[in-house]
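Lab channel / #folding
Pinned by the channel admin:
"Please post every new chain as: sequence first, then the structure tokens as a reply. Keep commentary short and put observations after the output so the thread stays searchable."

First post following the new format, from NK:
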Amino acid sequence: MTRDEERAVSPFTLTILNWFERHGRELPWRMTRDPYAIWLSEVILQQTRIEQGRPYWERFIRRWPTVESLAEATEDEVLREWQGLGYYSRARHLRQAARQITEMGGFPATYEQIRLLKGVGDYTAAAIGSIAFGLPVAAVDGNVYRVLSRHFGVSTPINSTEGKKEFALLAQSLLPVSRASAFNQAMMDFGALQCTPQSPRCSDCPLQESCVALREGRVGELPVKEKKVKVKERLLAYYYIRCQGEVAMHRRGDGDIWQGLWEPYIEEASHGSIPTEGPMLIRKGVKHVLTHRVIRADFYLWTPDAKPALPADYIWIPEADLDQYAVPRLVELLFQAVNE
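Reply from TO:
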């Protein structure tokens, strides 16, 4: 950045960039300008902590080193590699977007084109565009909302339409055009390491003198979020039906949680056609938390002598082959309970 550029940007921006030079995280996807590698990291980290997501990114890059190779993968292969990360629509969108990119003849290089990719929203498009192509677009994620809300004392709810517009304009006004990539990554890291959700490091913060929330004692109140959707509880019963070395499984359909993943026989609220005598209860009320619902599941093991009649979408899979099928985390817990 030239001296003229430095004079044109705000003290806030210079402070953030200087902090980033000393404290920025060294991450493998930051060692490249390959848009595929950067896009992959952004999709994996949309709802995932870096410590959890990094091994997945490394495995995906090893298995599918190019977007063309990912585009050729089957949905089952991608879901299986994604297993354990949750929010499985991300994995399906990832594969669909890889096919879009291949049809385009290469990774799109404008914000508008990147935004058209399946599963890519405003933030992800801005992050990819600025980091891979140097596009001057501010990327606003949860970390950025928090830093801006506290520093500038903005109490508009971050999950409201008005708030999203206000914070996007504020972030864009602070963006140094020639250093968009560094600024966006600096804001992400500053929110993740310094201005954290709980117990932020205000005592050694380089912005403490200008921070409105710190001065007014509102650090714990900002950012503001509108009330969430009420969390619903859902009761399930899973039956691990083992017969003649095989297990009954089916793939979940569209329009519900865990679309496209596999699971053993399931009944809602323990009301169904499975006989009451025979199945053995091995876990009661296993709790699994999703975004807008809490699932409580009972796990049963049933080993009938003959294969029972099941709905047409169930198939019998050799027990030794179960690890080839992508399953939700809750079903992983069922498998563990059966093995124990």
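NK: The mean pLDDT is 93.
TO: also worth noting, Residues 8 and 176 are 9 Å apart (CA to CA).
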